[in-house]
Structures are given as structure tokens and as C-alpha cells.
């Protein structure tokens, strides 16, 4: 762990900050249209870089400044000799002064504007310039038809700034949304494009700063994005005279009858991520299997009504919940673990028990809910959680005064008085039972090795996701198992591949 590790990450911005940046840059340039011209030119250059052979291009323009960017791009495409044209519906005639100027410039250059009803013809590429960062509502019926047609075309789709229909702050889509092949963000990265629905519909992402980087100074940061590059050097090498006591003692509690595999996976992850000692408190029936799988684990069977006693006292960190169940056995262990006031990582049924009876948690507790568990804790629906993942994670952190790892596409890490982190790693192959148990063990191991709670959650979530990507790269996403990640977790806990 290094002194600056809590500052790691790429800044992400919300729409309010980007609008202010746009206004500031436009004023400095003396004309807001100059920034739109830069956006159109940057988009044209990116199109050429991504699809250099494309000759027939359709640009679907909306009524606002995002449509203006599209007119500018199409003007460059037309002037280059491409078969390029704008498609729009009557309701999407330019409504802003800048969009009207861009439309006029396009027409004066000889550009063609066709009705959307004419269709895409023999187009090879669609440019989506319908709506930009300002849309936070469901597209109307006419716009929805356009979006459906774009998605049904089978053509590559290049979205300008934001896939139309996506909320650029929340990462959700209140209605229809364009499924882009590639999205070019303008000015700076948008917070909502890295979580929730966004990873499914934004395609690959790139940022065109439009030469206004200096104007970003002082702009409020909505979140910090973490990817594999930020993991390097985060976990410091062990001292040459280190002993097992220096790396902490993790106790994993869980594994009711029929669920022993969950607590075994958590223990495996804790060991592979560097905990010096790992214990397991589980049903007596599972002890033989735990020791056969991993003899390095100190496994002890706990009968119904039996107390954890010195097991919890000796631990530095308790990982509570994998396979715990919600019956009398699991509930009793849950109450004992919370009463011990040890640093906690809560997952799975520990979260479900917490949802049944909200209570104060020890300082530094880390919760690791998936959207369903988060919904139960908040009293929301899953759809409400997913509609604004940033708000849900922040509300949970404030409600319990703890660190929250809201799992899912673009996992979020939130805590009171901390800038949220977005984990820009992981893949759909990780959507399988047991992956969360690995994450619990990983975070607990880092916590035991001296990481503060928020940093352990950030680093652990990133390490887990990067290991998942490495495992998927070897044999594909489908059929990926939690145990496939263990070697990668060990590798990244030691600094990652040697280059």
C-alpha cells in the first residue's frame, strides 16, 4: 500500500460539470460554435480512424447541440467525397442557435437532409447524434422508433458523446437506448458511461478533450474510474523479514448445510490475496471437505447453539455471510460476529439478515451487495437501484455509516465523505454463483494486511475484476468459474504480470 493510493483513478464528471465546462470554454474561445466545430472535426477523425474504408454514412441528427455535432461531422464527410447524408424526423429540426448554425453550414456545403422515413438505404455506418448528455427522460415515441431502427439495422453505430437514450449521469436508460459500437465522449469522461446499462450499450469508449483540458482545473469530480493500470504498485511487496502475523488473520463465517462451497471460496480468496492466517467457522459436516480442499485453512465446525468464542477474538477481520443462511444457525453466528465489534466484510445472507433488522454497524464495516441485496437493504425495487446506482450506493453508505461495494456491471465503491470509485473491469462471465464469495475473501485479506476499509474495498473490487478478465481471456466468458480466478488473484496481489 502506498501513500497516494487513495488518489488513484481517472476523474469522471457529471452533466452539470460538463455544461459549465462547455460554457467556460465557449466564452474563452469567443464563440460557442468554435467548440462545436472542434467536436465535429474530432468525431470525423475518429470515424476515419475506426472505419477508414467506409464510404456510405448516415448521420441521424437530433434537435439539440448533439445534432449540431452530427451536422458538423457530416459536413466533413461530405466534403471528403463520401456518400454522407443526414437523416432526421420533422420534430428534430434544430432548436438551438448552435445547431441551426451547424445545419446551415452543412447545407451551404451541399449536404443533403433526408426524412427518416427514407431509411438507411445502402449505408455502411450510422452515426448517432440524436441526444447528448442532457437527456434524462424516456425518448418520445418518434425518437423511440428511430432508436429501434438504428438497433435493428445490423450496422456499426458510432455515438457522439453519449448513446442516445442513456442517462449520462446515472448510467441507466429510462426508455429506448441506442446500442453503439463505439462512443466518442466530448470534453471529459462521463460518470454514467461506466456503470449500469452503459457498458452494454456504449461499446468501446474514447474521449476527445477538444483542447479544453486546462478548463477542467477545479471542475467537481463525480467519481474516479479504476482500471487494471491503477492496480500496479497498489499492494506493496512484503518486507524480507515478514512473518504470518504481519499479514493478518481472517475468519470466514458461513457455510450452512448445502452451502459449504461459498465459505470455502471466500477462504481460498483470502489466502491467495495474502492473508497470513485464514480460519473458517462452518457447519461440522463441511470441515472434512474444507481441509481436503485447502489444508492451509484452520477449519472448525460450529454446532447449533455453540458460540464462536476465541475464534472471533483471535481474528483481525471477519468475513461474514458466504453460505451463512438465514435460519437459526446462521442468525446466531451473525449476531455473535457483529457483537464482537471486529472489522467486518458482510456479504450474501449477512446482508439479508441486516435488511430484516437494520442496526448500527462497527466503524469500518464493508458491505458488498449485489443489486437485489441493495434493494432489500434500502426498501427499494431492483429497478430503482439500477436506475441510479450512484445514488443507491451513496444512500447505503450514509444509512449504515460504512463502505459499500455495489456489485454489477461497473461496480461502485462508496463511503461517507469519499469520492465514489467505478471499477472499469470485469465481464459478464463473472455473473455466476460464488464470484461474490471470492470478492468477500479478497477484501477481507487486504483489510487484514493493513488497508483502511475504503481502500481495501476499492483495491479488492478492482483486483477481483481484473483477475476475472484475465481468466475470461484464456478460455472465454461462458463457463467461467470462481475458482478459475484464484491464480489471477494471486498474480495481481503480487503486482500483476511481469512485463
From TrEMBL:
PANTHER family: ATP-DEPENDENT (S)-NAD(P)H-HYDRATE DEHYDRATASE, ATP-DEPENDENT (S)-NAD(P)H-HYDRATE DEHYDRATASE FAMILY MEMBER. One of its GO terms (molecular function) is NAD(P)HX epimerase activity. Its cofactor is Mg(2+); K(+). In the N-terminal section; belongs to the NnrE/AIBP family. Keywords: ATP-binding, Isomerase, Lyase, Metal-binding, Multifunctional enzyme, NAD, NADP, Nucleotide-binding, Potassium. (6S)-NADPHX binds at residues 65-69, 132-138, 161, 262, 323, 370, 437. CDD domains: YXKO-related. InterPro entries: Carbohydrate_kinase_pred_CS, CARKD, Nnr, Ribokinase-like, YjeF_N_dom, YjeF_N_dom_sf. One of its GO terms (biological process) is nicotinamide nucleotide metabolic process. This is Bifunctional NAD(P)H-hydrate repair enzyme.
